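Task: complex structure prediction.
Instruction: return structure tokens for all chains below.
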Amino acid sequence: MNNNGAALLRTGQPIPQSEIPRLSLVDFRRVVIDGVGERQRVAALFGHAPQATDPVEVYAILADSARGTLRVARSVLDGEQFPSMTPDCPQVHLFEREIAEQYGVVPQNHPWFKPVRFHRSYRLGHDAWNRKDEAPLIGVTNFYRVNGEEIHEVAVGPVHAGVIEPGHFRFQCHGENVLHLEISLGYQHRGVERAIIGGPNKRSMHMMEVVAGDASIGHATAYCQVVESLNGLQVPIRGDALRGIALELERLANHTGDLGALAGDVGFLPTASYCGRIRGDFLNLTALLCGSRFGRGMIRPGGVPFDLGDERKQQFVQRLERAYQDVANAVNLLWESASVQARFEGTGTVPHDVCVDLGLVGPTARACGVETDVRHDFPSGIFRFAQIPISTWQTGDVFARAYIRWLEIQRSVGFIQKQLKELPGGPIRTKTGSLKANHLVVSLVEGWRGMICHAALTDDQGRFARYKIVDPSFHNWFGLAMALREQQISDFPLCNKSFNLSYCGHDL
Amino acid sequence: MLDVTLARLKQGHRTISYPAKVPTLPDRFRGLPVIDSSKCPDGCQGCIEACPTDAISIHSSGLRLDLGRCLFCTDCSEACPEGAIAYSQEHRLAVRKREDLIYDGSTLKLAEALDEKSRRIFGRSLKLRQVCAAGSGACEADLNVLGTVVFDLGRFGIQFVASPRHADGLVVTGPVSENMRLALLETYAAIPAPKLVIAVGAEAISGGIFRGHDEVHDGAADLIPVDLFIPGWPPHPLTILDGLLRFLGRLDETKRLH
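Output:
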């Protein structure tokens, strides 16, 4: 095994920054491009420059599922430009654009070089597009256009017809047929990463719970693992088990809601209305645990603040069983209805090789037959002791993305039931202190949308000098664009829902 | 087809009888805070310092909590060994004026109904356009929940519509990012007058956890006039529904069954 000079570590294992090799840009590129060639995945690629006058340093974190290890490398950019890796390694296309936007450095020969979130550079005076110092206007970029007499363009958003988050979509169409979809986001940008620098402070934990509001448990767990690793402490096993239960409940609620919404988008109202309600039953189970339907307050550094006593557990078990019976009944109608299957099958297909090239994650990747699941590949917390089988399907279409959700609902319910039966005794939380100075830690969690990656660099005071958040949506939005190729534009809502990506998780 | 009919029988009728009866909320649900300033030791600043959104301040009359900033987290109550701040199960929180959200523990001035003229226009049919302006997806989710069979918003004549041209009002969520400012203002402008604006959640009311960021506008109220504030992080669907019905003068609590 050739590491090409990268440091090896595990999820949640802090290493001193001095042990991360500073590679030449040529060697750094080799770590990334060769690593991806060996089926590693780019979990994060980000810049760092403590001061505007400092040179920009880039960090790469590659996830090696086969070995359960992470590789970390870094390199200091020489000047304001660097050769883009995207032509050799499409997985990094959005990461490079993000580095360009945040630090005002240009990846040369990037084939799709546009802003990601439309904000000013972190290094004032350095702008990758040579824009003036005033704030850039959202959505002003050179959109891809197909020319031709019969070609028309459809622009949708930022405000959409439903009660959902904002984003801009441009379709190049020939009649009903979509030749190309371009997705331009950034409307939800709230400055999360910038605000975390200098922390942890009294806001940090709460901000993590709204990185993506429907994945509060996932992001809060990733953040807490960062803090706990940098404290060098272990969460009590009962706390780990309760965190695992909360994470799977979040998956249950969202997967159930998505299956209902998919049914709604093909006009199959029974499943749509049942699942809308049953999603609430799962949310209410989370509220039974911690008072909040979205799990706000459930995950805290050192463990969990809310225990599950015997009486509560009994109630929990009964309500989970009832909700599971209901969701099984509602969802199985989908697979038995020819009219639903006719709309799901063959719609919005992402080919396996496209999925691998783009580095898609989560249920979307598993629906393309890619065996990837952080709970299995990079287990932390309770998943070190309790394994959940990876659910995969081969077809990569709307059906596959729907069916994966149903498979995962069954696995998650089984997991929670088992945990409740074997719930370990002991405390649920330990005290945390200050963070190790000048360290790096990477924390991975399988959120319901896929791999959540948090990477933190601390300064010599043990404060966050850089905090990188990669929501699974960041990997997957381009997958949606590819799924729409040669589809009917009227199938967009169905395809979109089958991904159900987070706008704010992407925009941060 | 038979399966669909059998499933219908199995799933049953699940719409709650609200507002005639309020469903039981979970015992750990954090509703309207309970403040007892008499328990505060002299000079103690524990809760004030702990609050992530600086929602708490102390005055000669005691503690004041800005419900518009409150995340309904437990940081204040954990910081107070005396128990001067706790949470009740009270889900009713909506008010008409921003200053009514500054709560001292006595009575919260819940939203008054619209005047009679407005009620004649909106009272039996209210169409709302929702704009998520950097909301996290949770407030939006609990607005969507009102459309499920559990709450069945349609039975109150309230509906979310796709076009601002079809709307009587605007529901805003999120702290209003700079990148959504123009879209929010244009959507507001596209709604025909007379129109109503409802801010849902701590972020839409005050910026919440993002308050003070350069990238956001600390909520909707500085940009457009807000007629109803529904606090929470996110507000419980019942809190939102209570606010809407109260606003429309559709809530007669004297007829409530217990």
